[in-house]
Specification:
fumarase; 2 domains; four-stranded mixed beta sheet; 15 helices; about 35% helix
Length: about 500
């Protein structure tokens, strides 16, 4: 009989979450670096360079890889011969560990969890509760897998109940383009097949805890049905040409993971969940000898990648830019932003919408006329920082507010991640605005371009408050120009043709 102490589980969970907030799994970094080395699309290669540089900076600085520090997911298998020296339930112990990790004074993590999700959506302030999957198994140990899953990639989760004769690969290949780039490729696809609807979803999430090994599988060759599916999906999804950040390129997925389970004769449930460029997970075991604390990796294993914007980058002063100026910007062009811009995400946009509906003015200090808005919810600053990691959030969530913002505020530009949808693009075209894309998964790198930050409105929203940032040479790409031309449409189309032509030779 093994006795597990309450403090050991709490400390192990807290340590694991701090660790994965700033250390990528080494297999992920190696896979991205391999994809970077062979990438031929300049836009995609530049995006992966920023991801790799950001990863090393975070590992060295012990700050979050992404401003979205995730919703905590825990798979815990408790041996039947384990007893607990604890006053709290297992669930409460895990949440105590989450609370301790996310409030760490030297590396405070962003609280993103909303209680009453169908109602007032109030932030719980400490990122609890975690999503916990608990299983009782044989043995005398406690086996734990911990992940911090970003909301952007989680939002792209898909489920379908196929007919038994339907083709799984066709469904995946048809579905991935509909996910857009908000899940920040390149990443991993986790797929669950069989069981029931909820079983398939849990299996898809659990597969994302596994190590990347698709290249080894390619060399060895498939020996099972699932291995054949993995290889076929991997090849066909990458042939779509979506590429890093959806900009078009050779690598969209780094691996495909699949688990299955027996299912009803009338059903073929299939779930698919992507992991993003901020892949964060770790595995440890408690055996009664104390907490399982993580050892720092060898940073010499991180690739030493350099990146510069090049001489052709356009430098823009945000304090003097005009609607006339932005009309000359070309899709795919690199822009270096300097000056002041405002921030705002879903909750801030909703408050602005409510103010307009009531005929009330914007709060004092909030003036979007001839200005840019950055879709971001930053991590709190620590020590000497101006702001914590501050990478972009998925821009498509703001599409439904875009016409309102452009029509009523005089806004001329937006900065976010991933593509814009048809409604957003139509509004951009109508009001001759522009949309600029920053790299998702490079949040700490982006934060180094921010020289000043202050909250100017809606402070009650926490990380979703409106900030005013002052930036210096913040790198972005023109993703939608004033004519509505989108690089997230043209880039993948171009690279899909290139890939297909090569396969046909």
């Amino acid at each position: 009989m093994t006795t597990i102490k309450q403090a050991d589980l709490i400390e192990s969970i807290a340590d694991a979450l701090q660790y994965i907030s700033y250390y990528h799994p080494l297999d992920f970094i190696q896979a991205v670096n391999n994809a970077y080395a062979k990438e031929e699309s300049k836009a995609a290669k530049d995006a992966m360079a920023q991801i790799l540089i950001n990863s090393r900076m975070c590992a060295e600085g012990h700050r979050p890889i992404c401003q979205d520090t995730g919703i905590v997911t825990v798979f815990i298998k408790i041996g039947m011969e384990v007893q607990w020296a604890a006053d709290l339930s297992v669930e409460d112990m895990i949440n105590a560990g989450v609370r301790k990790a996310y409030k760490h004074p030297d590396n405070k993590l962003r609280a993103s969890i909303m209680a009453d999700p169908a109602g007032v959506r109030k932030n719980t302030t400490d990122n609890t509760p975690a999503v916990i999957h608990m299983e009782i198994v044989k043995g005398d140990k406690v086996d734990i897998q911990v992940a911090a899953k970003g909301g952007g990639s989680e939002a792209k989760a898909k489920f379908v109940m196929l007919n038994p004769s339907d083709d799984i690969v066709d469904w995946v290949v048809d579905t991935v383009p509909s996910m857009g780039a908000g899940w920040c490729p390149p990443g991993i696809l986790g797929i669950g097949i069989g069981g029931t609807a909820e079983k398939a979803m849990v299996m898809a999430k659990e597969t994302l805890m596994e190590s990347i090994d698709i290249q080894n599988l390619k060399e060895r060759g498939a020996q099972t049905t699932l291995e054949k599916l993995r290889l076929e999906i991997y090849e066909r999804v990458n042939a779509l040409g979506i590429g890093a950040q959806g900009l078009g390129g050779l690598t969209t997925v780094l691996d495909v993971k699949i688990k299955d389970y027996p299912t009803h004769a009338a059903n073929k449930p299939v779930a698919m969940i992507p992991n993003c460029a901020a892949t964060r997970h770790i595995h440890f075991v408690l055996d009664g000898t104390g907490p399982a604390l993580q050892k720092p990796p060898n940073l010499d294993d991180w690739p030493k990648v350099t990146w510069n914007v090049g001489a052709s980058a356009r430098r823009v002063n945000l304090d003097t830019v005009t609607a006339e100026t932005v009309r000359a910007w070309q899709p795919g062009e690199t822009i270096l932003l300097s000056g002041k811009m405002l921030t705002g995400r879903d909750a801030a946009h909703k408050k602005i919408q409510d103010l307009f509906a009531k005929g009330e003015p914007l709060p004092d200090g909030v003036d979007f006329k001839d200005r840019f808005i950055y879709y971001v919810g930053p991590v709190d600053a620590v020590r000497e920082e101006v702001v914590g990691p501050a990478g972009p959030t998925t821009a498509t969530r703001m599409d439904k507010f875009t016409e309102m913002m452009l029509e009523k505020t005089g806004l001329i530009g937006m900065v976010g991640k991933a593509e814009r949808g048809p409604i957003g693009i139509e509004a951009i075209k109508k009001y001759k605005a522009v949309y600029l894309m920053a790299v998702g998964g490079a949040a700490y790198l982006v934060s180094k371009a921010i020289t000043h930050s202050k909250v100017i409105a809606f402070s009650e929203l926490g990380m979703e408050a409106i900030h005013e940032f002052e930036v210096k040479d913040m790198p972005v790409t023109v993703a939608v120009d004033v004519h509505g031309n989108s690089v997230h449409q043209t880039g993948p189309q171009e690279w899909q043709k290139i890939i297909l032509q090569r396969k046909s030779i």
